[in-house]
Design goal:
The complex is a heterotrimer. By secondary structure, chain A is mostly helical. In chain A, 35% of the residues lie in helices and 1% in strands. The radius of gyration of chain A is 23 Å and the shape is globular. Chain B is α/β, with parallel strands linked by helices. The two termini of chain B are 38 Å apart. Classes of the chains: A mainly alpha, B alpha/beta, C mainly alpha. Strand 1 of chain A pairs antiparallel with strand 1 of chain C.
Chain lengths: 274, 587, 244
């Protein structure tokens, strides 16, 4: 399977959905008032502008984008361009911009080719390097670098010079926006060559399109990408009164556990008895 | 014919947690050490990397990291009157194999046993009288105290980077920690992990009932940490694939993340993987071990002479190795004489589930191996056993570690086992159920023991270990009493329905309960009731040290790993500071 | 800079609708039985039983696909035809004794042998009692027959009916909820149905957002061209969009 093929189905699915549904809104959101200054560097569709070091932001997870703007505003991420802009935005405006760009589908740069050091980048991306205690990028940045919404951004198809600059910023501590501390720790183990290799590898990947993600309070309705229309009613639990099945209950335990493996039971036991 | 190799200073049988720790301490003391590991070499990179490590079928259900039953298993029966039959596939407990051993696939729960656990018999007699010990149990003291082990616990936890909150710092009680713990000399290396939703509801409910909730001590780390060996660990990401899996993030303390790379860089340490040790060879007087015999993956037999032998395998395999090698007198339940295989114990667990309204989103998959909140109010001798007629205890906690759906799909009592109503119940309850664990002690019984099976053999033609075990009445009483307390907490957690019940006999190997198999090479101060002395040195063959949960005279309320690590450092200290200077009996 | 009203903005741009409506992702809703199934282990008669039985064990309804739609039969077929079916990790030495329930599985059969023998006996049993195969029974009678197997009330010769039923049920569960790379859980629909996120999982920043349901399309092991261990590269984790 080629790298390019990965993100495509998702994008196609969403685009066809938006265009096809009878009551659906126009496929492209209207441009909010605050967007114009962004466009000058990040492009009309959030595709970024490598010449000025501006990353592709289209379809990045909403929460990730909002956090970056907050970080530019409070100084935990430094940029002479972004800091003054972010400082002018209130929380709500940042949230709106994040939502706007998270839902944008920008064209993919089909001309991007892996650089000469991409093989080393690929190794780091999917395997890591035991000799320097570097784990694989894929652990958090998703299959082929398409990210893990809402927290971890996609890196596939990102501009190479931005990727390299971002890794350098993580490494030298000028970017410190990861509460888990994972990213700075990993970046500190990367050599200059590793950073170039990662940039060469990921920049030639295929970025994903917009993806639905939600954290929802209260009763969960249909998940955003459910293949099925409804969730069960409250009364859907089983008939009362009958004893539960034998699997996992022979010791008087509930049918399934959830701590330390299926400690309280679980249905994966070998057949018992004769 | 075995090829005889040049003699080395020491050999470790198994390169798991104990083999790695002892390998490190002995090479640091200048010894040339060979580590013999029966399984594969494996490392965080590439073997534990995502996504392949996040495969429930492969690792949890098919048990890819566990000992292959087709080669070696254990035979089992509930009582001496039955014929033991081989455990043809693991379910009830899961012995691991491979470099790093069970400390690769453990959950990271890192508890210290209490002084009342180490002096179980003395304390019971002092507080409740000699008659309180019923004939179905055989509790005994360990020969060490919590105060003696404190610095070794401390050193081990700082090796792991354990995340937690002290409750007793040098005698001062610290709010938020475990008020029942013995004094610790300093705080945990890293602060507690984040508290998941179900655990937070447990904490509130337990506190409202007057109990003392505290964060479960965890060796899935809450923040980046560099240990005294210079190894760097990272933050646990709450992926929900911990027990039965390796950690891709360098976040779970395991030999691979805390020590092995340092050891493997030491030219005095030689690792040999895929090497199956068949026996320890003794001299003519059977007072001194001279070598070990092992077979490599190509079937070639080797004899590795060594001056010092560290038996550091999984508890069950430690016992079997002594039996196969004729070290120590095997236990005979008919006479009560003999020690090897005596006092095999386990863990007495049960569970309670709290089924919530659909408004309450638990997100069971956002968990780590050792996260969550527990209470120690019913641990060990932290409550008055007088009215209840049993000894021992259990912790209660909301410590769910995953929401992997083949294993975890809770349904309330009364749900049909399959069909449309089962499916509806699974969908209804998957994200709206919290599960409490009741993790209890297992007191040794004269009826429960390990010996060699007379019938079944392993792939090398050697007798399998035979396990004879059932829960003593004492432990079932304990489970009934404390599971009732857990049900009360469950009711206070605000769910719509609470389900669960105590452990009941007979013990079955068909349902996973725990892999905390303990005893069989018990430590102590009396050779008539122990296999090794208080420094874990064989009474019979002083250049053999046996280290692991097989040393536990009975199993305590808490998970065993912290105590195994502390004992390993305790024994290493005695070996390096005393034994090497004057090889001979240390006690 | 102008302050934007989040709610108004979302309404104006239709983003709320996008988030809400994304569930129509076409490939997720694709019906499972586009083409006839093919099997490597089961013969047609065996397959007919398995397909009909798993459809009763986990039926299709408005919550999500049943075991048949999730291609659990395909999963079981591959498992039985491979190392698992041949007794991988199974201690197989005799002597053989029935044992007690606490001693677990004590039959000499590998999973493949267990299924072969049980399915042969079930066909004979049904031919005698009903005159035709399981697949031709009405659903209520199918349920009754499965229940009889579950309770050990049918004589399957050398295979205890109970043991066969439990094995079938366990493998049905495994095929329903395991990663799609193994052939079942087609389109990850069983994961979606319960809200399980799948193989890519990092929740450090979400675990303390108490009470909020996490809703994201699950991700399979197979959704990368670079997976280190791929049990079957020919099985896509989800159906590729047409025209690729």
């Amino acid at each position: 399977m080629s790298l390019k093929s990965i993100g495509l189905p998702i994008i196609l699915g969403l685009l066809s959905l938006a265009a096809g549904a009878a009551d659906a809104p126009p496929p492209r959101p209207a441009v909010p008032g605050g967007v114009a200054p962004c466009e000058s560097c990040h492009g009309a569709k959030g595709e970024g502008k490598p010449a000025v070091g501006a990353p592709r932001i289209a379809a990045q997870p909403e929460a990730y984008l909002a956090r970056q703007m907050a970080a530019f505003a409070d100084g935990s991420r430094k940029s002479p361009v972004m800091t003054p802009i972010a400082k002018q935005l209130d929380d709500e405006s940042r949230a709106d911009l994040a939502a706007y760009y998270a839902a944008l589908a920008a064209p993919i740069n089909a001309a991007a080719k892996p650089g000469p050091s991409a093989e080393r980048g690929r190794q780091l991306a999917i395997r890591g390097d035991w000799s320097r205690e570097i784990q694989a990028c894929a652990n958090c940045h998703g299959p082929d670098g398409i990210g893990e919404p809402p927290t971890y951004p996609y890196v596939a198809g990102q501009h190479a010079n931005y990727l390299a600059a971002a890794l350098q910023a993580w490494r030298d501590g000028s970017r410190n926006t990861d509460p888990s501390g994972q990213m700075p720790a990993i970046a500190k183990r990367l050599s200059d060559e590793d950073i170039d290799a990662l940039a060469a590898y990921f920049s030639a990947g295929t970025p994903p399109g917009p993806r639905a993600f939600r954290m929802v309070r209260g009763p969960a309705k249909a998940p955003p990408v459910a293949s099925t229309p409804t969730r069960p009613g409250v009364g859907a639990a089983g008939r009362p009164g009958t004893p539960s099945g034998q699997v996992g209950t022979e010791q008087g335990e509930p049918t399934t556990g959830g701590s330390q493996g299926p400690g309280g039971g679980g249905a994966t036991t070998e057949p018992t008895g004769r | 014919m075995a090829t005889r190799l040049p003699e080395v200073d020491a050999v470790t049988l198994g390169v798991g947690l104990v083999g790695t720790m002892l390998g490190r301490e002995l090479t640091r003391a200048g010894l040339k050490v060979v580590g013999l590991e029966r399984g594969d070499p494996r490392f965080t990179v590439p073997d534990f990397q995502a996504p392949q490590i996040h495969d429930e079928l492969r690792y949890s259900v098919r048990k890819a990291l566990m000992q292959d039953n087709a080669r070696e298993t254990v035979t089992f029966r509930n009582s001496g009157k039955e014929m033991a039959l081989p455990i043809r596939r693991w379910e009830g407990f899961l012995p691991g194999t491979g470099l790093g051993g069970a400390a690769v696939h453990w959950n990271g729960q890192t508890y210290r046993f209490q002084d009342s656990d180490f002096r179980l018999k003395t304390r019971t007699v002092e507080r409740y009288g000699r008659k309180f010990i019923t004939p179905d149990i055989s509790p005994q003291d360990w020969g060490v105290t919590a105060a003696e082990l404190e610095s070794y616990y401390d050193r081990f936890e700082y090796l792991l980077g354990t995340s937690g909150k002290a409750g007793n710092l040098k005698g001062s009680k610290i709010p938020g920690g475990n008020p029942f713990e013995d004094a610790r000399s300093r705080e945990y290396p890293t602060p507690p992990m984040k508290e998941p939703y179900g655990s937070a509801m447990f904490r509130k409910a337990a506190a409202s009932l007057g109990y003392h909730p505290y964060p479960q001590p965890s060796s899935n780390l809450s923040q980046p940490y560099t240990n005294p060996e210079g190894m760097k660990l990272s933050t646990c990401m709450f992926c929900g694939y911990c027990e039965r899996y390796g950690c891709e993030h360098y976040a779970k303390a395991s030999p691979q993340t805390v020590l092995l790379p340092v050891l493997l860089n030491d030219p005095n340490f030689i690792l040999r993987t895929n090497c199956q040790v068949l026996r320890i060879n003794l001299d003519r007087q059977r007072k001194r071990a001279t070598s070990v015999t092992y077979v490599d993956a190509a079937g070639r037999e080797f004899e590795q002479p060594a001056r010092l032998i560290i038996v550091g395998m999984f508890a069950l395999n430690n016992v079997r190795m002594l039996l196969l090698s004729g070290i120590g007198r095997p236990y005979d339940p008919a006479t009560g004489k003999g020690v090897v295989g005596r006092n095999y114990a386990y863990q007495t667990t049960s569970a309670v589930q709290v089924f919530y309204d659909q408004n309450v989103n638990i997100n069971p998959f956002m968990r780590s191996g050792a996260n969550g909140t527990v209470i120690a109010d019913f641990v060990s001798d932290n409550f008055d056993h007088g009215p209840h007629g049993f000894i021992g205890g259990a912790y209660i906690g909301e410590i769910m570690s995953h929401g992997r759906p083949i294993e975890f799909h809770p349904t309330p009592p009364g749900t049909p086992k399959w069909g449309a109503a089962w499916k509806q119940a699974v969908v209804r309850h998957y994200n709206h159920t919290a599960s409490l664990s009741i993790h209890g002690s297992s007191i040794a019984s004269p009826r429960n023991y390990l010996d060699l099976d007379p019938t079944y053999k392993d792939a090398w033609g050697l007798p399998l270990l035979r396990m004879t075990f059932d829960f003593p009445e004492n432990d079932l009483k304990m489970s009934a009493f404390i599971t009732q307390k857990a049900l009360e907490i469950g009711k206070a957690m605000g769910g719509k329905q609470v389900a669960g019940g105590p452990r009941k006999g007979p013990y079955t190997i068909t349902q996973y309960q725990t892999t905390h198999n303990t005893g069989g090479t018990v430590m102590g101060t009396d050779p008539a009731t122990s296999v090794v002395n208080r420094y874990l040195q064989s009474w019979d063959v002083p250049n053999v040290f046996v280290i692991g949960a097989s040393n536990f005279p009975q199993n305590a309320s808490y998970n065993p790993t912290d105590t195994v690590g502390a004992l390993a450092y305790w024994a290493a200290d005695a070996i390096v500071k005393r034994y090497l200077k004057s090889p001979g009996a240390l006690a | 800079m102008a302050k934007l009203s989040r709610r108004g903005f979302l309404q104006a741009t239709g983003l709320a609708a996008l988030a809400r409506g994304a569930n129509a992702s076409a490939e997720m809703a694709r019906p499972a039985a586009d083409k006839p199934r093919s099997y490597g282990f089961f013969n047609p008669q065996e397959a007919a039983f398995i397909e009909a039985a798993v459809a009763r064990l986990i039926p299709a309804d408005n919550l999500g696909p049943g075991a048949l739609e999730a291609d659990v039969p395909g999963f079981i077929d591959k498992q039985l035809g491979g190392a698992w079916g041949a007794g991988e990790r199974l201690y197989r030495s005799g002597p053989w004794h029935a044992g007690t329930p606490s001693q677990g599985y004590q039959l000499p059969f590998t999973p493949a042998e267990l299924f072969r023998n049980a399915l042969r006996a079930i066909d004979a049993d049904l031919a005698k009692s009903k005159g035709h195969g399981f697949a031709n029974l009405p659903p209520a009678e199918q349920d009754a027959y499965l229940t009889a197997l579950e309770k050990g009330e049918r004589d399957l010769g050398s295979v205890p009916a109970k043991v066969f039923f439990e094995t079938l049920w366990e493998m049905t569960l495994e095929g329903y909820f395991s990663d799609p790379v193994y052939g079942g859980n087609k389109n990850m629909a069983a994961w979606e149905m319960i809200g399980f996120p799948g193989a890519y999982a990092n929740f450090y920043e979400l675990v303390d957002r108490h009470g909020e349901a996490f809703q994201r399309r699950p991700v399979s092991l197979g959704e990368t061209g670079t997976m280190q261990i791929h049990p079957d590269p020919n099985i896509p984790a989800y159906a590729p969009a047409k025209g690729r």
